[in-house]
Amino acid sequence: MDAIEGEGRLDRPGHRLEQGLAFTENLLGVTRGRARGLLHGVWLGHPLHPLLTDVPIGSWTTALVLDLTGRRRAARTAVGVGLTGALAAAVTGLHDWQHTHDNARRVGLVHGTLNALALGLYGWSWWQRGRGRHLRGRLAALLGYPVIMVSGYLGGALTYNHRIGVDQTDRRLEPRRFTRVLAERDLADGRPHRALAGGVEVVLVRSDGRVHALEDACPHLGGPLSQGWLRDGSITCPWHGSAFELHSGESLNGPAVTPAPCFQTRVRDGWVEVRRAPRVVTAPPGSTLVHQQEVRP
Amino acid sequence: MRRRPEVLTEVREAPEREKATRVLVEHHEVLRGLMRRLLATPRSQPGRRRALADELFDELRMHEVIEEEIFYPAMRDVTPGIAAAWSEHRQLSDQLAALVRADPRTGRFDRELGVMHDALESHAHLDEEREMFPEIERFADEDLLVELGDRLRDRLERLRSSRRTRMVLRLQRALLRRTAR
């Protein structure tokens, strides 16, 4: 694992591949289109790719069992279903991979290469089975299965160790009370401003006569939203281009699939004050906590 | 005897060797100049807008190439911000594609140009000039930076005069325009 992460020679082919991918996506209009968020899984609330990987793994495991019990036709169908799922997983996986950094990028490249190898083996297996050469078909599947297991392990490492696709925002609830962050006159119109609120970095934006506040670190990989740009009531992360709605923090296009945490804001005595807006109000009505959680402009 | 063709753009010979960061900042200025000229060109001159957008496309792509091939790999162990800078290049490429795909006679071109300006400033000024370059100048070996500066300038010159590079970039622009909706 460490050998892959530290292998700098993987960077050049990785960037070549990404540039090819970028050009293809721009040609197809994916980058600025609806397909972008769809493939990342913005509509789902978490990445789409891990869902799809279950299809080939499950189908090819089934095929292994069917091969052992001698059900030839059913085994071929299972291999075919797995191939379809693997192609869908490849598209979403590449789409997510292109927006990763350093070590995770290298692991992702090896993960993808192994998957391509397994896809080739199973594709050949399916073809050979169709021509009645079941022994060859079974052999290719037997070779492909361990490859997909190793690759699955690397995919897991990307999520659990490198936190790719994981919401990277601050889990604390600070600041719970309205906290002064910036003199109002220092907040220029239409330009993001970074400030510190109770140990949390927030980005303040004045737009349409309102002050909006989001957490400064992008939920995708922690990019500084305060260095991003504003368009049509949204702010775009300068690192990977995730756009967030200013008033709600909702992600509009990915690669960030979760919303940027939102803060309540008010202006008192010439100071901008912010307080964490809880995503869900859990306290029972009438309690002290609900008083803290309620929205008061 | 053949006469040499007349040179249209005057290329100033650099008087002395410069650090890589300095070379890159100078090239940022070239890009900013193009951006200013584009912003100052009204919608009524679509031909000039298109030509300037083409020039920005080529020049910015060459900037990305020299940084990615020479500067970033050498600085990987000096600053942790390299991966992010690489991602920002991707944002610039995407925005360049959006810009050349927009019709220069429309408001869409103006909008894409505005975003292009913000994205370029975010990368060149907010990230590199204000954060990354000062850090590099503090921690990296000065001789190394000067040597990298020579290599960057040399590579840029060769890219600019390379017929193959020009052709690839032209093909990319044509393909992007052809598929625009």
From TrEMBL, chain A:
Pfam families xrefs: DUF2231 (PF09990), Rieske (PF00355)
Protein name: DUF2231 domain-containing protein
Cofactor: [2Fe-2S] cluster
Annotated family: Belongs to the bacterial ring-hydroxylating dioxygenase ferredoxin component family.
Listed Gene3D superfamilies: Rieske [2Fe-2S] iron-sulphur domain
Domain Rieske per the UniProt entry, residue ranges: 179-274
Keywords: 2Fe-2S, Iron, Iron-sulfur, Membrane, Metal-binding, Transmembrane, Transmembrane helix
Highest taxon of the lineage: Bacteria
InterPro entries: DUF2231_TM, Rieske_2Fe-2S, Rieske_2Fe-2S_sf
Coiled coil: none
Transport as UniProt keyword: no
Organism: Microbispora triticiradicis
Entry's transmembrane regions: 77-95, 107-127, 139-160
UniProtKB/TrEMBL annotation, chain B:
Record InterPro entries: Hemerythrin-like
One Pfam family matching this protein: Hemerythrin
Residue ranges occupied by any Hemerythrin-like domain in the UniProt entry: 21-135
The protein's name in its UniProt record: Hemerythrin domain-containing protein
Organism field: Microbispora triticiradicis
Taxonomy of the source species: Bacteria, Bacillati, Actinomycetota, Actinomycetes, Streptosporangiales
